[in-house]
Amino acid sequence: MHHRIVIIGGGTAGISVAARLRRAGEDDVALIEPANVHFYQPLWTLVGGGISDMARTSRPESSVMPKGVRWIQDAAVEFDLEAHEVKIASGARVTYDVLILCPGLELAWDVVPGLSEAMATPFAASNYAAALAPKNAELVRRFRGGEALFAAPGSPIKCPGAPQKAAYLACDYWKRAGKLADMKVTYATGAGGIFGVPEFARVLEEVVERYGIQTRFAHELVEVDPDTRKATFEIAGPNGKTRETLGYDFLHVAPPQRAPKFVRDSELSGLNPFGWVPVDRHRLRHVRYPEVYSLGDVCDAPTSKTGAAIRRQAPVVVANVLATLSGKEPNAHYDGYAACPFTTARGKMLLAEFDYSLTPHPTIPFINTQRERYDMWLVKRFGLPAYYWNVMLRGLG
Predict the structure, then answer these.
(1) Catalytic one of 102, 159, 171, 299
(2) Neighbours of 209 (CB within 10 A)
(3) Is 171 a catalytic residue?
(4) Torsion, CA 14, CA 20, CA 22, CA 23, rounded to 10
(5) Distance from CA of residue 278 to its chain's centroid?
(6) Terminal-to-terminal C-alpha distance of the chain
(7) Sorting pLDDT into bands at 50, 70 and 90, what band is 239?
(8) How far, in Å, CA of 121 to CA of 12, rounded?
(9) Which tens digits make up the pLDDT trace of 249-277?
């Protein structure tokens, strides 16, 4: 089967782009996506914090699929890029004039020995998986004291602020329950600091101090022993790499993440070890295949992998795809905008907005979002989900 435009991935990026293409009058769009359920994953932070429930984060995939888009409910498994062809799991082949690649990413639990096994114990969880976020909320509620360890990789992950949010919401809960003083809370990350934008980093450092969280930077989780409840980190220092082992009674981990296997195994992936798709960071066009565009978590645009980034990427991709199909040079421009809504407590949120220059890029007039605010908390809990389902996925904003 042949389609003028083929999209791989029915998540935030794929549905947003498909809806915009339909609104632009494109009537031959196919979307390849095997899943029956569509998740609004940013809310999993609040699920893991015991503030929301998982049922509020999902809807049937059929309910968000734009009218007029052909949904191929199957998985992409292989490419023939010279033939402009995608092979799907059923064995069928789909050809295209333009391909839009946005299948999201996969959680690479296997990269850290013992991590998957730890998640099956009553001492560890993660807000990055639908089955584990409710478990995290339960473990936080039951935790009575001891060593609480929050770990995150230094490599790119979706919503890189989420591991911190898990720590802040847990500490806020324990503080309100009068238990925080009996705990040793550690946040260990492979990153070199708390956040890459100084204006927001200063606020987050105050949050860390308020909760008494011990921070360990340049600490990459490399092994977990679920039997002894110990986590081993590799530390990059000026004299080489060393290791440190920390015990835990409660463990929250953001696992390493990478492009899906069918992308990593293809010529569409880059030379990076995670298989991210190399694109012109402004036009989001593949650097080697001009008929291929990529956005969202799977592309290597040097910005945070967030839904806010996709909101700005989607109109750029649509404009450039339409230009390509018309034989024109694509010139729509993405400036690297992304946003991280840091929930620092129940009722407080810091909205970090920035672009490729790693300087603040505020989009809300008359409000100082460079501090913790209650109104921003309401936006996170109620406003953004409503905007997502009713505006963004319909290609309206």
Answers:
(1) 159
(2) 10
(3) no
(4) 160
(5) 18
(6) 31
(7) confident
(8) 32
(9) 999 999 999 999 999 999 999 888 999 99
Nearest in space to 160 (alpha carbons), one of 300, 335, 341: 341
For the stretch 334-371, pLDDT in tens is 999 999 999 999 999 999 999 999 999 999 888 898 89
Q: Average pLDDT for residues 120-130, to the nearest whole number? A: 98
Residue of 122, 124, 140 whose CA lies nearest to 183? 140
For residue 326, how many other CB atoms are within 10 A of its CB? 8
224: tokens are: 């977990």
Rounded mean pLDDT, 235-256? 94
Amino acid identity of residue 364, one-letter, is I
Interatomic CA distance for residues 163 and 30, integer angstroms: 35
> In what helix (H) or strand (E) does residue 385 lie, and over which residues does it extend?
helix 384-390
Q: Cα dist. 327→163, 165, 291, 295 in Å?
A: 44, 45, 11, 21
Q: Are strands 106-107 and 257-258 parallel, antiparallel or unpaired?
A: antiparallel
Q: What domains appear along the chain, each with residue ranges and CATH number?
A: 2-105+259-335 (3.50.50.60), 107-256 (3.50.50.60)
Q: Give the strands of the sheet with 230-237, arranged side by side.
A: 219-225, 230-237, 240-247
Three state DSSP letters for 252-315 = EECCCEECCHHHHCCCCCCCCCCCCECECCCCCEECCCCCEEECHHHECCCCCECHHHHHHHHH
138's tokens: 């339960």
pLDDT > 70 in the chain, percent: 100
Tokens 């995150």 belong to 152
Residue 345 burial (CB < 10 Å; 0-12/13-18/19+)?
Answer: buried
Tally Cβ neighbours within 10 Å of residue 304: 22
State how far the alpha carbon of 255 is from the alpha carbons of 227, 242, 389, in Å. 19, 21, 27
C-alpha–C-alpha distance, residues 252 and 244, integer Å: 18
Please say whether the beta carbons of 29 and 18 come within 8 A.
yes
Q: Which two tokens stand for residue 19?
A: 């809806």
Residue 220 DSSP label: E
> Does residue 340 have an active-site annotation?
yes
Contact between residue 211 and residue 185 where contact means Cβ atoms under 8 Å apart: yes
Rounded to whole angstroms, the Cα distance separating 152 from 39 reads 22
Enumerate the β-bridge partners of residue 234.
220, 243
Catalytic residue among 102, 171, 299, 340: 340
